[in-house]
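Let us work through a complete example step by step.
Step 1: write down the sequence.
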Amino acid sequence: MSLEIVEIMGRAQQGVTQPFICRAEDDQVYFVKGRGAGRRSLICEWIGGQLGLRLGLPIAPFEIVDVPEALLAVAMRDDMNELGVGKAFGSRKMPVVELSVSLIDQVPEDIQRDVLAFDWWVRNADRSLGESAGNPNLFWDTGNEALVVIDHNQAFDSGFSALGFVESHVFRSHWSALIGDWVEQQHYVDRFLSALSDWATICNTIPPEWWFVDAEQTVQTDFDIQSAHQCLLRYQTDTFWSLK
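Step 2: predict the structure and record it as tokens.
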């Protein structure tokens, strides 16, 4: 199942992928990443988001959306090829502000640890924030006083640096406590196991066309689903929490 996009309203200026701002048939507005974001990016978004939900993270609602060819044909934009026709990834637009250093202390400590442990598990280093710069890909819902998590397109990073992760992650202050508490580690291991129990379902709901780079579906994407699964199974090893 997917939601049909009925209106292309514009394009975000922030973020590397600069998602399109679209209205769907449910009358909700979504940030939509399509062909221009890259197939690997879309697969990572879907898998990361699904695992995060199962882990209990406060992830912004997301859907697979469908961009009809007829809509692109009448769009008065010269970048429609970057959106593309067919299935895309949509993250619902919410009334939020970007998480800043001054807001970190308002995020409950257990949620901070959850995000830190999750990003370590899926090897997502794209959540950095320092005193002067960074992009945490996290938002703060001021109305509900709650964290909102987005963007998993950099998950399963083959160039992941463990040291770089613990030095730059927005919630890095919890790392020492996490690696020093065996009970806490086991708590996350149990949750990882539970989330992975739905692995087959998560993979089977990825749109078939996302596995191909071209519209003719002759060139496969470079995302290796088996390697991603093996990456996630690292939690079973004694060295999972090690920086080496």
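Step 3: interpret the result. Residues 212 and 221 are 5 Å apart (CA to CA).
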